[in-house]
């Protein structure tokens, strides 16, 4: 676990001291040169403009786990009760699918689109008392297919640059798996352990893959972001000035800025006194650029 003292000397700087309860799902818009992100607990879809420092929050009617930009404009959002299309301003306008779980004790969590514009959204068991969560695929015609099951908290979804390997984590197991991925069928197969961690703070949360194929993982309660090679070896770890980074995304004009969302929920007063920007958005320059984020084709 990264100490508060180490986090104070972090290469990351806070670019938006928003103090979100549970900041998540950063998505960079190349066209707008803006970062979209969500606060799951105080539900909102946000647009952050790094050039001006302005953040615009659009309230959601219930918790929002993840979203994607649509190729035709606007968004698709995964709310607690199901999938919705949203306007370009971010307001839900049309429900296109019910949640594949009981919303009383499950909700959507991490998700993103594959290269062909199909949205994969995982969900989580909020009680954390059973492996009753799964990863589902929402196709452009709005049909849903369960693709991975038997987990507690679905997280860490990302694809290799060639689209042939899918990564996914079940956070409480401290394990990231790799799957063979067939872009035609959109089905992951042949699961194997990509990386496994043992320290209490090494809980892999959201992730992103760079153009060299390295996997960047946010370690919730670990206060760091790790860069992992395609064969599962940790190359480097970078302290974040928050104990609970949640997910990362590449942005900037050259996709050489790594943005990281973070959480403030359930942190002690002593920790927040040492890490007051917890819940903020952080940024760090990187040498290897990321990849453009695919948009939902529906």
Q: How many alpha or pi helices?
A: 2
Task: Please estimate the helix content.
Answer: under 10%
- The number of domains: 1
CATH H level, superfamily name: TolB, C-terminal domain
Order of helices and strands: HEEEEEEEEEEEEEEEEEEEEEEEHE
What is the terminal-to-terminal distance?
A: 41 Å
Query: Could you please say which CATH topology applies here?
Result: Neuraminidase
Describe this structure in words.
The chain has 298 residues and is mainly β. 4% of the residues lie in helices and 51% in strands. The chain has one domain (4-285): TolB, C-terminal domain (Neuraminidase, 6 Propeller). The protein is built from two helices and 24 strands. It has a four-stranded antiparallel beta sheet with strand order 1-24-23-22, with no helix packed on it. A hairpin with a 4-residue loop joins strand 16 (175-182) and strand 17. The longest helix is centred in the last third of the chain and has 6 residues, at 269-274. It is globular and about 45 Å long. The protein starts with a helix and ends in a 13-residue tail after the last strand. The model has no long low-confidence stretch (mean pLDDT 96).
